[in-house]
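Minutes, structural biology subgroup

Action item carried over from last meeting: produce the structure token record for Glutathione ABC transporter substrate-binding protein (Jeotgalicoccus nanhaiensis). EB confirmed the sequence was re-checked against the source entry. Recorded below for completeness.
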Amino acid sequence: MKKLSMLLMAAFVLILAACTSDSDVEEEVAETEGDAGNGEAIDFSIMALPNSLDPHAANDGYSLYVMTNIYETLVKLNQDLELEPGLAESYEQISDTAWEFKLREGIKFHDGSDFNAEVVKANLDRVRDEEVASPLSFLFTEISDVEIIDDYTVQIHTDEPFAALPAHLAHPGGHMISKEVIDADYAQMEEGGNPLTEVNRTPVGTGFFKFEEINEGEHITLTRNEEYWGEPAKPESITFRAVPEDQSRIAELTSGTADIIYPMDPNDVQQVDANEGSEVQQRPSANMTYLGFNTEKEPFNDENVRLAIASAIDKNAIIENILVGIHEVAETPLNPTVHGYSENLEPIEYDLDQAKEYLAASDYPEGFTAEVVLNSRTHQDVATYMQEVLSEIGVDLEISLMEAGAYQEYTANGDHEMFMGGWGTVTLDADYGLYPMFHSDNIGAPGNRTRYSNPEVDELLDNARVEMDEETRLQMYEDAQQIIIDEQPLIPVFHTTLLTGINSDLDGYYQYPSSFPYLKDLE
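Output recorded by EB:
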């Protein structure tokens, strides 16, 4: 893992310096005359369907798994985890506070409308529009203006230097939506409708798959975009089906009903690998799974309570006994694959005696009862272990398993006391791993579900966003992480190994460290 971390950090240094030109771009807009492919229909079973198909509305994994196949971004991460042009033909930083993007010409949205500079401005203006109130706006708060230079050139201006802008534009929050649908969404808002409605109802991108149908609560089907501007997708269609139960997903895979299943519990890996015709693909992630506290609610507004619980949990025992040695112990908020991870931090150590001392020093020396909410079997197994060990210090843990959508809404609204959660640092940079999770501006749906607020952490994260000296920037992230560890609004528990069950006859499957599946080349 350490070697991989070094490679990814090196890759991100290249990312921040990336300024591409026409000569760097080998792939040109391709004509797709004749037969676009003869692939099969792919059945993909996931735990839940998306909360929304509007890129400006949803930041949960299940939404992003589907949307990354419908929409595209100006800049994208390739499979070597390097930034490269996407819908932009080239891009460069032309001043400390301005980036210029040359756009590919001749690209059409699924509705036949043109992709151009006006579309880019409409998208970036919308995601930052306070009336729209996108939970993804934090990605682009540094943008002050999007200037149209000509039909296929835009300049993006920032209030201060923001070296991570290309990486943020590669995030699904930077997906380009048809301006026709954006205009329709604003039109229904003017008539009293809710924002972020029409795009979800009519998701139109430029991607290699296009939206076909949705059966609420059951499945979403995408079909191959036969007029895709680049190399067309190999599968004829992808159907994402909601299958909440782990064993039901496994049964579908092993019986041949499903081609791919995700996620998987570590305890099921051997079962799938032992079945003829199926296998588990294991890949490194940029994820961190944690036990979170609602720091606005008693007793979790008491730092000593949080430290008591953190000290009482033996993470190594969880990995070995609950997760069969597959995942990695997490001591810090950032996964080692993320640029900004530091080995210099001092984590909270497992110490049951110290845990009892912390609780004795709190306002709840006799203990208390609290509910932990979660939405997966893996998290339930981990919480069951925690339930047993926390009883030793007087904490009575009640476990509530919730449906994925209800869980997202419950924790976003702050109705919870404790929760098991996960965060994937999609950009592989500390800004995205820390700013949405711990900055007080992002309490709720954007990412800060612990409702944590510390002015010193806010200042460090704000300053790091615009700091151009990389050594200084990394030190800011290290300082912020140490404060977060010392105050424990959440307990990092483990870093995930991505586990995907797949039909052994399928080739071409890839999964990014963010956990997003790349399905274009499946055959």
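Discussion: Residues 470-487 form the longest helix (18 residues).
Next step: EB to file the record with the rest of the batch.
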